[in-house]
Structures are given as C-alpha cells and as structure tokens.
Amino acid sequence: MAAKEKLEQIQKQLQEIIGKAPEIGKFAEYVHAAESPKALDTKTKELISLGIAVAVRCEPCIVWHAGPL
C-alpha cells in the first residue's frame, strides 16, 4: 500500500474512533494546537514527532508524521 493510501486509511480510522469516543477528538484538538507554530515552526515539530515515532516503532505514527504538511 502506498504511503498516501496508508495515511488516508489512518485518518479515516481516527475519524471513526473520534465518532465513537469524542474525548479522543479533544486530544486531537490538543495535538493540532501543540503543532501550531510558536517558538518552533510546524516542520520542526513534525520532525521531532517523526523521530519519536521511529524510536517507539509506531508505524501509523510514522506514516502520519512523514506525510505532507
């Protein structure tokens, strides 16, 4: 499966989870706010997140953070 298709699948699954557990939506809002540019730009934060994802071997996380900004 191509990376773009995998990312779309992960995003769809996340939306389904949020539909079943709205509190996860609040966490997603928190992540979105945390990734907004402040002291560090968004790209730098994404690279940090990607490094963490690789370190913990979280394949969906790697796909998510390696995707387009």
Ordered list of secondary-structure elements with their pairings:
Elements: H1 3-20, H2 22-34, H3 42-55, H4 59-66
Helix pairs in contact: 1-2, 3-4
Give a quick set of tags describing it.
single chain, 69 residues, mainly alpha, 4 helices, 77% helix
What does this structure look like?
This protein is an all-alpha fold. Helix content is 77%, strand content 0%. The chain is built from 4 helices and no strands. It has helices at 3-20, 22-34, 42-55, 59-66. Helix 1 (3-20) packs across helix 2. It is globular and about 35 Å long. The two termini are 20 Å apart.
Report how far the terminal alpha carbons are from each other: 20 Å
How much of the sequence lies in strands comes to under 5%
3D shape: globular
Count of individual beta strands: 0
Please provide the ordered H/E string of secondary-structure elements: HHHH
Regions with little confidence, pLDDT below 50 for 5+ residues: none
Number of helices: 4
Major sheet details: none
Whole-number mean pLDDT: 88
Please give the radius of gyration in angstroms.
13 Å
Structural class: mainly alpha
Helix % is over 70%
Write a short abstract of this structure.
The protein has 69 residues and is an all-alpha fold. The chain contains four helices and no strands. It is globular, with a radius of gyration of 13 Å.
